[in-house]
Task: structure prediction
Amino acid sequence: MKGKLVVVSGPSGVGKGTIVKELVRRRADVIESVSCTTRAPREGEVDGREYFFLTKEEFSRRIKEGEFLEYDDHFENYYGTPASFVKKQLESKSVILEIDVKGGLAVKKKMPESVLVMIAPPSLEELRRRLVSRGTETEEQIEKRLSRLEFELKQANEYDFVIVNDELERAIAELSAIVDCEVESK
Ligand code: ADP
Ligand code: 5GP
Result:
């Protein structure tokens, strides 16, 4: 295995996608894994780029076949990391998984050499502002996502690193440094 497996977690709207996409754009040696999900594509999302969009039946079949490194359900939909895709990519590159805390801890159990990174918001108000300005969820969905914040951040102590996403450039630089660092993770 040549690359490093880096899990990036944090509350919805904290900026995970923004940070990871920019790092992947800048570095040819880092890619983002594409997860499978049963949720509907958002405006502008492309099958095979943001996610592989599957039916519930197809997702269940893949669970039975053991095709996921981990999977979970959020907001009434399934999300899972395809194991073969990740292992193949690690032969030549570092791979970033953008998944929730439960998924991250499951990956760490299966692959202890992985590194877990939590992205935290500067404040609850700022997180709400970002979710509203993204404009992809209803108010009810936003409240649901915000109510998970405390639960998600509490588990940060199980993580190897925490990055506060206040200034975007600094957050990207910190994640880039973590991909490179040689320090053994927990
Ligand atoms: P996530 O992937 O964690 O759900 P996104 O990457 O979609 O979050 O970011 C949510 C919103 O916050 C987006 O509109 C994004 O442009 C904005 N955003 C991300 N990082 C910052 C930052 N450091 N400062 C201000 N706005 C940000
Ligand atoms: P969204 O619908 O906003 O894209 O993602 C909702 C949640 O699903 C986020 O917390 C995201 O991190 C999580 N998620 C995305 N892909 C995966 C995956 O492959 N596995 C798990 N466990 N969670 C995922």
